[in-house]
Amino acid sequence: MQSETSETMNPDDQINGEAQSALAARTASDAPSAAAAPAGPQRTLTIPRGTVVLAATPIGNTFDASARLVALMEQADIVAAEDTRRLYDLARRLGVHVNGRVVAFHDHNERSKSDGLLDEVETGACVLVVSDAGMPTINDPGLSIVRRAIERGLPVTCAPGPSAVLDALALSGLPTDRFCYEGFLPRKHAERVQRLRALQSERRTIVFYETPHRIADSMDDLLSAFGPDRPMALARELTKDFEEIRRGGIGEIRQSVIDDPPRGEIVLVIGGASENEALEASSSVLSVDELAVLAIDRALEDGLRIKDAIAEVIEEHPLPDGSLANRKQVYNAVLKIKQ
Ligand code: SAM
Predict the structure, then answer these.
(1) Which residues contact 262 (CB under 8 A, 6 or more apart)?
(2) 209 lines ligand 1 (CB under 6 A)
(3) Which UniProt keywords apply (predicted)?
(4) DSSP per position, 220-240
(5) For residue 174, what are the domain limits?
(6) Whole-number pLDDT of residue 27
């Protein structure tokens, strides 16, 4: 297993000294709709009016805040923040004053709040949407307002930036040309196993978010679903002081999780299935009648009760969505064959 840690810049501390003055200089502006931007061909940063702007915030390192985020935080008419305390904390670290109205905008109220915010957009307001860290809508609030804005024909744009998905993918060393993002695995074991089974024939690199208290169970399930040799990377504390990337086969990484449980925020990146693995996974899908024939053979060969043989073959041959065939249907098919 390859493990790598890197020292990054003092992320959680307040930006101070030179950096603070640089930020202050680039965000200072007398005009309500323009902020000074870094030197270059485009010297002013225009804040769009009558628009929803989703903006990515740092996932650990405050220095990853873009000039556009800083200007938007200062000048948006309304800031819809997942957690208003975290917004003000970020503003403090960036040395920015949030001048607009701040509203809480989280998973529990985003549906009911979106239309009210869009009414303000209709009257010309710039509504900035930020989550606690990273890109809004990526396992974070934001999708409701985007959808409603589209339905109502109102402008919505994005000030992109940090997101743990792309950071981990890029650092994994696994193919990046085709990948899929699977968010968090389900909490319940049976649902997690079903989700992973459905991914057994997935050829693209797969990205999951994970938490320290579930990582050990998830590694066990990843091992059963994909085997010990499938390459993967475990990326934790990205952009922070204790950033670490563990790369290796699933078996090795699982062992490392047992020996040295990872703490902090985690992303798992799993290599896609090889052509053979994908073929094997998709050809293992059987019809109810085929499962019945297999169960009868298994019962005879291994001296099992038919019910136990059915349970075994059903488990070994999940349906394409990862769920299992209905036992009763397979049992009825067995009875039909025996008659
Ligand atoms: N919107 C965020 C984004 O764009 O990455 C994701 C928010 S989701 C609620 C939080 C999860 O993202 C964490 O549990 C972890 O899996 C992942 N994550 C966020 N920041 C991370 C970091 N600095 N290092 C590793 N994983 C991180």
Answers:
(1) 212, 215, 234, 236, 244, 246
(2) yes
(3) Cytoplasm, Methyltransferase, rRNA processing, S-adenosyl-L-methionine, Transferase
(4) HHHHHHH-TTSEEEEEESTTS
(5) 165-276
(6) 38
